[in-house]
Write a structure and sequence with these properties.
single chain, mainly alpha, 7 helices, 68% helix, globular
Length: 144
């Protein structure tokens, strides 16, 4: 509760997203690599509320598939309406751990900033998952 109230809430969801993208790039790439293996299909993507991590993966997959940014953000904007039936429970859960109500929302403008920041950070906007595979190979070469 203390971390939620004293650290995360003052930081806000947009800055939390930026920190996630800054410090979890390898995890994002690892997640996208799952989609490069036929034997992994069908793939069910989910997280606690379906808006943050799931939203990120969905945005990136749509981008890789070649969807225009405005389509991706319009698709994500539907998330808020989809969360409406469980909003009260979400707010109760968030408040219990010291987070502000902002963390229950899925504002498309915030997701767009997050999505653009990630594209800049890992250069994912290449139109194909083969980019992700080559990115991972290059990273491994640097380590070895």
């Amino acid at each position: 509760m203390l971390i939620g109230r004293e650290v995360l809430s003052p930081m806000g969801i947009a800055n939390l997203y930026k920190k996630l993208v800054t410090y979890c790039q390898d995890e994002v790439v690892q997640t996208l690599l799952i989609f490069t293996k036929r034997e992994n299909y069908p793939i069910h993507v989910h997280c606690t509320q379906g808006k943050d991590r799931t939203g990120l993966v969905s945005c990136l997959l749509l981008s890789i598939a070649g969807a225009p940014d405005e389509v991706i953000i319009k698709d994500y904007a539907k998330t808020q309406a989809g969360l409406a039936p469980i909003r009260k429970e979400m707010l109760d859960d968030l408040r219990r751990v010291g987070l502000s109500d902002e963390f229950a929302d899925a504002p498309p403008q915030v997701k767009y900033i997050y999505y653009q920041f990630l594209i800049i950070k890992i250069g994912v906007k290449q139109g194909t998952l083969s980019f992700i595979v080559s990115h991972e190979r290059e990273k491994r070469k640097k380590v070895n």
